[in-house]
Write a structure and sequence with these properties.
Layout lengths: L28 E8 L7 H9 L1 H7 L4 E6 L6 E6 L4 E5 L5 H13 L37
Parallel strand pairs: 1-2
Antiparallel strand pairs: 1-3, 3-4
Helix pairs in contact: 1-3
GO molecular function, one term: structural constituent of ribosome
Pfam families: L51_S25_CI-B8
Main location: mitochondrion
């Protein structure tokens, strides 16, 4: 009995690439940088957030790298870096401690995509037009009676 030659499978061909789907979710944010000043009063709430709440937020999001940067003489900002190569910057000088946390959570939940305005006059976009158009009681054989 002669066996057919087997095709060699290389290890690189067995690799699977992660993708979002029903079995896995890959977050879009990869790094968040919090920048603050040690002396400016506008950075007080950001410093409080960093010292009290940032560790808890980092434990809840192990997939994100959190970086704390001291920038003397600059207003506090939060900067999110995303897997699509974009970044978003949010100033934090006017927020309370819970407001700073909400803005950091906004960066965590964001996709990093550019915000696109809706087209003028169209709220819902579809790939196909409506099959029958707009229904009217006047366009039927027997008129619609109330």
């Amino acid at each position: 009995m002669i066996s057919a030659p087997t095709k060699q499978i290389l290890r690189a061909q067995l690799r699977s690439f992660p993708a979002n789907g029903h079995t896995a979710y890959l977050p879009n944010v990869r790094k968040i940088v919090l920048e603050f000043c040690q002396k400016l009063p506008s950075s007080t709430n950001t410093r409080t957030f960093i010292s009290n709440d940032l560790e808890r937020l980092a434990w809840q999001n192990p997939h994100v790298e959190f970086v704390v940067k001291q920038r003397n003489g600059h207003e506090p900002i939060a900067r999110g870096f995303y897997v699509n190569g974009r970044d978003k910057v949010i100033p934090l000088q006017e927020f309370e401690v819970n407001g700073v946390e909400r803005k950091v959570q906004l960066l965590l939940d964001s996709s990093g995509a550019k915000i696109k305005p809706l087209k003028k006059g169209r709220i819902v976009e579809s790939t196909a037009e409506a099959a029958r158009g707009i229904w009217s009681g006047l366009h039927v054989d027997t008129p619609f009676k109330i």
